[in-house]
Amino acid sequence: MATTSGKPGIFAIRDVRSLISETAEEGQGLKKSVGVVQLTAMGVGAIIGTGIFVVIGKGAGIAGPAVILSFVLAAVACAFSALSYAELASSIPVSGSAYTYTYATLGEIVAWIIGWDLILEYGVSVAGIAVGWGGNLNAFLDAAFGYQLPDAIAKSPSEGGVFNLPAVFIVLAITLLLVRGVTESARANLVMVVIKLAVLIFFLVVAFANFGTGNFKPFAPDGVDGVTAAAAIIFFAYIGFDAVSTGSEEAKKPGRDLPIAILASLGICTLFYVLTAVGAIGIATPDQMKGSDAPLAAALDQGAGISWAAGILALGAVVAITSVVLVIFYGQTRIFFAMCRDGLMPRRLATVNQRYGTPARLTIGLGVLIAILAALVPLGTIVELVNIGTLFAFVLVNIGVIILRRTRPEMPRPYRVPWSPVLPIIGVLFALYLMSDLPWETWMRFGVWLVLGIVIYVLYGYRNSRLRTEPQSTPAWAKDPDSDKDPEENQP
What we know:
The protein is mainly alpha-helical and 492 residues long.
């Protein structure tokens, strides 16, 4: 951080060199142990979950067979932001994702806002996905064994139960796995990704073996409006590739591996999504899928008449959602860790366990809080906050690329967004367009959360920030450990 004559203001910017150098501090540096395959699997693990197993039915109900185009449009909308994430992740290999990138480009107050936003987004998302995991577990038990857990231990109090035991179980199990180490977590996620891709391949084989073209007419009953409206919903089936960037600091070769992982995970998921949509329409009508909580299983059962496959699809959904919980929760711990290390949250929480190389204390604390939330609170419409939070982050990441190109033109960029600033600007416009379609209630809840965050920043974060408690001169450019092995990796 640059030397200043007075106390830095709320728009003070963290120097990229200082951010990188802090990753080598004793007791606060994360272990570099994740390669490109594990990072790509993290992206696929975060993206393929409830989206393809649930949201495809809602999209088909809106766009009809043209839901296939909706998947493509949503992927294009994500692609522009993915490019910006790839550039910043390779240039600033530090935990924190959009929070850290914003700190280096737009200033501390904006970084705090996006960090506070991401804490809500990831935390609510993990709790909501955990609740969905419990519902899919019950569906699998019913399909495979004709048994379901009692409502008393499978639902929240407002839904007629006492507490949601399956949701608590999966959150605490993932918490212990993340404490154990990022290498173990990445391996477990890789296994789950292989399983759920195998389930989707099974669906595609069965679907195309029973394929027909009759359900494709009329292709777009509501025209372009139907396609774009469905894309606004299906867009959220792609959310998750940004979680890859939270692993920047633990990547073995961030300059090379992060851009590959971000773009490859988005590409793999888009391919599977489009093929699955084509296969589903080939065996079932949109009406048969839109009313089901398990549209792919409904397509096989009602469309192709293969009822026994429902159990396999239910098992695939359970595995898919488990990997989503793992990766999203991992992302939240790394963002919170970065904020603590910067002093905006209590710095003692940023201590890395020397045995496991993970922020164990922080991870356990967040896991307990999320487990309580998942056990007792029906999330319902509050999950919409995940949507607006993600899109808000997309806006700032794209803007960050444009600003850094002007303010730090000499900074090493192993990956560069082509045709900047045109593509980042398109990414901003796509995100703002999708945000404009969200309900006003979501905007109000989001506003309340941000006001609460500003109060905490004023009372604690501003005073304890490392920008004010540890003024110092900017150190020399921190070298990536891998740069000695392959100098070209860190060249612009």
